[in-house]
Amino acid sequence: MIGYISRRLFTAVFMLLAIAFVTIALFFGASRDPARAMCGKPCPADTLAKVSAYMQTDKGVLWQYVEFVKGLFVGRTYGSGAQQVHCAAPCFGYSFPNQSDVTTLIVERLPVTLSLTFGAAVLCLVVGIGLGAVSAIRKGGVIDKFSTGFAMFGLAVPTFLVGLLVVQVFGFMLNVLPYSGFVPLSESPLDWAWHLIGPWMVLSIILAAGYIRVTRTQLLGELSSDHLVAMTARGASPRRVNAHAVRGVMIPIVAMFALDVAALLGGSVIAEKVFSLHGLGDLLLAGVNESDLSLVVGVTLFSAFLIIIGNLLADMLMPLLDPRIRRA
């Protein structure tokens, strides 16, 4: 078990370092120079060189990568003298348009994205696994037909279209849900949940479709397996048989959920835009529009960090669900 976790931790660290290099190479090697955007127009060559040196964008990709990794552990300093700017560790870069380090901007916006991700994850698991399990147990019934149609709808429609439909129907036409704004959990848990019901619905409708199909298919296979058929023949109650079958379904569900964390974080960009929420997705789009490459790189790598941590937790949970993984 310890060896399994150690291998996963090593893989996670290696993936983060690799993603950091690729992201920096893409944005700093091929994108527009952020110093030119800060300098404005007109911008003489000597002024542009000074701005670029101050922002540390005049160096090569390898230098940028080394400084970025060092900044995560010891911080980073931009400029010198009275205009010196220090970014404390862990430093994901400094956003000159916002005059703030990227870490602070991420911390300010993180509660919105985490609220979206957590709520949508819980909702899509409850709806997806619940409908998928009932569909398998009552195959061919009304619920089975409804859940199959619901899954097809969720897989076919894009996130932005579902978001616009939720805003139009529940926000404007029926006026039963708020269509913008965010209330921190610390201020009012009830208002926090109330303002996030719409975004949660959008993200969970898209993701629950996959869980319905996987749960239904896996559960039907488990219920027809030899050991559960034998258990039924020995007189075991349907509740006990279903409980054993559901346990076997949880292994692929956990693996699938770890991968869907990325989809939740990526889909939150669209949900935040539709519902006017200022989370990491909105911050990333602002960085792209302002050519703030430090902000873009920082948010991208932090999102990758959250995704890898989620997959790492799933890898650590898998041996607890399946003893065969511990023995492998």
TrEMBL record:
Q: How does it sit in the membrane?
A: Multi-pass membrane protein
Q: Which ranges carry the ABC transmembrane type-1 domain?
A: 110-318
Q: Which InterPro entries match?
A: BPD_transp_1_N, MetI-like, MetI-like_sf
The cellular location(s) given in this protein's UniProt record come to: Cell membrane
Q: What Gene3D superfamilies does the record tag this protein with?
A: MetI-like
- GO CC: one term? plasma membrane
Matching entries from CDD domains are given as: TM_PBP2
UniProt keyword annotations, A-Z: Cell membrane, Membrane, Transmembrane, Transmembrane helix, Transport
SUPFAM superfamilies on file = MetI-like
Query: What are the recorded Gene Ontology BP terms?
Result: transmembrane transport
Q: Which residues cross the membrane?
A: 9-28, 114-137, 149-172, 192-212, 249-271, 293-314
The family classification in the record reads: Belongs to the binding-protein-dependent transport system permease family.
In Swiss-Prot or TrEMBL terms, this protein is called: Peptide/nickel transport system permease protein
What organism does this protein naturally occur in? Microbacterium saperdae
Q: What is the lineage of its organism?
A: Bacteria, Bacillati, Actinomycetota, Actinomycetes, Micrococcales
